[in-house]
């Protein structure tokens, strides 16, 4: 008899993402109708997602995340599209800040990740001062350029 573990896991992920979206929507005090309108989807479709009857695409999840003003990454992880990353209160705070544009959030994330990567390299090289200035000027220049001119790519975009 074939195993149904994979099918059961997918079904559970669909239910989990729907319940998570509902909790986020209710916590934000947004009605189903309001979220559906902002996300550009129908009320019945959003209702089916929340009840675990439909598995939304990555594009629909991004639209829902925008409507809820939460990180699309959080929804992607919940839906099983992305692997969870190491917990970072800094990145979580940046992602949750409603006053930042998606572009600004990406630039701040790139700067933070560059600093963390530089610190790890310094530590691996046996240097005690992992906060040295090597490369910081370049990272900051790129970040400022990217923030001023959205056509300028960031280190994260180049590595994608």
Question: How would you explain this protein's 3D organization?
Answer:
This protein has 160 residues and is mainly α. It folds into 2 domains: 5-79, 434 Repressor (Amino-terminal Domain) (Orthogonal Bundle), CATH 1.10.260.40; 89-159, no CATH class. 67% of the residues lie in helices and 0% in strands. The chain contains 9 helices and no strands. Helix 2 (32-39) packs across helix 3 and helix 4 packs across helix 5 (72-79). The longest helix is centred in the first third of the chain and has 23 residues, at 5-27. The radius of gyration is 19 Å and the shape is elongated. The protein starts with a helix and ends with a helix. 18% of the residues are buried.
Please render the helix and strand layout as text.
Layout (H helix, E strand, L loop, with lengths): L4 H23 L4 H8 L3 H8 L7 H11 L3 H8 L9 H8 L5 H23 L11 H13 L6 H5 L1
Sum up the structure in keywords.
mainly alpha; 434 Repressor (Amino-terminal Domain); 2 domains; 67% helix
The level 1 CATH classification of the largest domain is Mainly Alpha
Instruction: Determine the N-to-C terminus distance.
Output: 41 Å
CATH architecture descriptor name of the largest domain: Orthogonal Bundle
Number of domains: 2
Q: What is the share of helical residues?
A: 55-70%
Listing every helix as H and every strand as E from the N terminus to the C terminus, the arrangement reads HHHHHHHHH
Q: The CATH topology of the largest domain, please?
A: 434 Repressor (Amino-terminal Domain)
| CATH homologous superfamily (4th level) name of the largest domain | lambda repressor-like DNA-binding domains
How can the largest sheet be summarized? none
Tally of extended strands? 0
Shape: elongated
The low-confidence runs, each spanning 5 or more residues with pLDDT under 50, are none
Strand share of the residues? Answer: under 5%
| Structural class assignment | mainly alpha
C-alpha Rg (nearest Å):
19 Å
Number of helices: 9
- Mean of residue pLDDT values: 76
């Amino acid at each position: 008899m074939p195993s149904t573990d994979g099918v059961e896991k997918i079904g559970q992920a669909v239910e989990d993402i729907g319940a998570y979206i509902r909790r986020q929507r209710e916590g934000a005090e947004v009605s189903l109708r309001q979220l559906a309108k902002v996300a550009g989807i129908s009320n019945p479709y959003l209702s089916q997602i929340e009840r675990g009857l439909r598995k939304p695409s990555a594009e629909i999840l991004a639209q829902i995340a925008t409507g809820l003003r939460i990180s699309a990454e959080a929804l992607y992880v919940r839906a099983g599209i992305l692997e969870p990353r190491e917990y970072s209160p800094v990145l979580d705070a940046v992602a949750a800040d409603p006053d930042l544009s998606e572009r600004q959030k990406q630039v701040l994330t790139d700067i933070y990740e560059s600093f963390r990567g530089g610190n790890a390299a310094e530590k691996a090289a046996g240097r005690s001062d992992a906060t040295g200035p090597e490369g910081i000027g370049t990272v900051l220049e790129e970040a400022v350029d990217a923030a001023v001119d959205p056509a300028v790519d960031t280190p994260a975009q180049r590595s994608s």
